[in-house]
Amino acid sequence: MPGAGKSTIANGLKEKGFEIINMGDAVRVEAEKRNIEPTGQNLGKLMLELREKNGPGAVAELIKPSIENSNSNVIVIDGIRSNDEIKVLKKSANVKLLSILATTNTRFTFLHERGRSDDSKSREIFEERDNRELGVGVGQSIESADESISNNELTKDELIEAAYQVIQSWKE
Asked: Which of 20, 48, 90, 101 is 20 to 30 A from 161, alpha carbon to alpha carbon?
């Protein structure tokens, strides 16, 4: 779910040498191509429009070329939202899913502090975003994860290290 710590992990793993591909960045790039202001509401509408027009795995299709052109043995994908996206990605790679869990209050606080242009500024907007994410299937993806980490009381370094350890165990 938004604000659970996925991007924090991705940034930390990037510093450890992992290649990172961010699904939200793919939508932001598409918004830029269309001259759409990257607000949370606009990006959410665009995400839904892409899925409606090109199918539920549309956002994953946007990143497939990056995966297929990569020389990396491990690529961390930040921001999978549905099992349909996972199916698309499995056509290009071996996929393992790590879910990051956090309470609603923890996630809202993280997003509020992060301050990205598409982050929720109010509880109402935050809840709308959560409902949109649940509507595209993120709940099922969380349930089907190979591993989960709870990020309610971890420091940033502990969170990154926990994710790193999970990925290392998958490589063995």
From this structure: 90
Listed residue (156, 167, 166) closest to 5, CA to CA: 156
Is 0.90 surpassed by the pTM of this model? no
- Distance, in Å, from the CA atom of 162 to the CA atom of 34, rounded to the nearest integer, reads 38
Q: What gap in Å lies between CA 89 and CA 105, rounded to an integer?
A: 31
For 6-171, which CATH superfamily applies?
P-loop containing nucleotide triphosphate hydrolases (3.40.50.300)
Rounded mean pLDDT for each run of 10 residues along the chain, 172 residues in total? 92 95 93 93 92 94 93 92 93 92 92 76 86 88 94 95 96 82
Q: What is the DSSP letter of 76?
A: E
